Amino acid sequence: MKVVRSFAGEKWHAAEGGKGVELRDPSTEAPLGHVSADGLDMDHLVQHARNQGGAALRELSHESRGQLLVGMSKAIHSIRDELLDLSMKSCGTTRKDSKFDIDGASGTLYHYGALGKEMGSSLVLEDGEGEQLGRSSVFWGRHTRVPRNGVAVHINAFNFPAWGFAEKAAAAILAGMPVITKPASSTCLVTERCIEAIVEADVLPDGVLSLICGSVGDLFDHLNEQDVVAFTGSADTALRIRSHSNLLAKSIPVNVEADSLNAAFLAEDVEPGSETWNLMVREVAREVTQKSGQKCTAVRRIFVPKNLRDAFVEAFVEELSNRVTGSPYDDSVNMGPLATADQLESVLQGIARLGEVADVIHGSGERCNGVGAAEGQGYFVAPTLFEAREDGGSEIVHDLEVFGPVSTLCRYDGSSATAACLNSRGAGTLVTSIYSDSDEWVHDFLRRGGSYSGRFYLGSERMAAQAPGSGLALPSSLHGGPGRAGGGEELGGLRALDLYSQRIALQGSKRTVETFVRP
Fold this sequence. Notes:
Elements: E1 2-4, E2 6-8, E3 11-13, E4 21-24, E5 31-35, H1 42-58, H2 62-78, H3 80-91, H4 95-119, E6 125-132, E7 139-147, E8 152-155, H5 163-175, E9 179-182, H6 188-201, E10 209-211, E11 228-232, H7 235-242, H8 245-249, E12 254-257, E13 262-266, H9 275-289, E14 299-305, H10 309-320, H11 341-354, E15 358-362, E16 384-388, H12 395-399, E17 406-412, H13 416-424, E18 429-435, H14 439-449, E19 453-459, E20 478-479, E21 490-491, E22 501-509, H15 510-517
Parallel strand pairs: 1-5, 8-9, 8-11, 9-10, 11-12, 13-14, 13-18, 14-17, 16-17, 18-19
Antiparallel strand pairs: 2-3, 4-5, 6-7, 7-22, 15-16, 20-21
């Protein structure tokens, strides 16, 4: 039975004694291995990353750091087929959904590597233009950003074991901070193999990248004021991390991406059968079912004008009916199981709660047998569509995120003002999708409710030919959201480097200031 390893101090560590967390194939429930970090010296891990990795990165220019990221990207891509097979087995994702994760990882690393090349020989980040502070330019002021002299601790969710690690690591390493990455135990086989490929490729200086598979133990006790924590996962876990006594006492930054009841709105101007209508039907069905609905960007609430309800439900249910739930190794299947037994139980409990205020109009809302899987085996739930009994949806619809292939349709009056109000009831989302060909409708919505979402995906006939869907977190755009979504920010091009750098104000002679920022 495989024991998943950690990588610390440039050595691989396999826990001895206790078995730790058991890993299972979500399609067959067959055991795959165990994961534990027992015996790992967290203090030594942190010190090695700070003293070896951090020092090495800060000596490098942005262009040189970018070259490291390109090397990481190539190492992951070199074992792409192996990673796809491993993802299908350990995560239960179809080959297409596995590509979404694996190619997202290598692509994001390469993107940030290219940004580093564009930044050239610089060692610090520019932050606005300089300005005269005295009677003349002899006394000059300017802001800039320098790397933090610490380590970036990354704690990632189970649903993207490759992309989740890579997108955080890309920004931190380009900024000049070493990384300790901790994947969710249930799907960490993929992350372990990614790190192993990078280590084998020998593309990073010592201490730049470390891996914890299993519990973080007393890791947070060894962090200091120069360190950073970035977390993706549930709001409950985020609160526990944010409340850690050492993180609070030392004002250690904690960036969070948490729960999100993302919404999709059909505007009143869209006609049934139009290109924008069809775009919404296709894309929202995908965002409900891709990776079995286990995405932070999945659409949980669908809002449709009352007069368009019947036509939309007919078209949308027909689209959902094309999803075949089962083993990712069956060629007819296009949606796999949930990732774990705990995840299955959580989804079924969530479905039961939604059933208190909404009616199932597609699917059974129950565990099912998977196509190509043994009867009664695997964590399968088919796509489930609810319709809220109350116009606009009652509180549970806006408060409960069911992390699976489940969404709730809500009727509303079609106006932009009502739509903006309904979006706000989610208390903060990662992404809100708007489908409309009316700039006036869209602009009014954004002015009224723009502060409640981190990103807005504006679907229309004009962009349909190049539409990637709202679920794709592009490295050039911010990923994060206010309130319930965690209040954090990741990606967004060079904006992602802000978390890992310290803004400083320089005040002195113009020559001294400017030659530091632009040598």
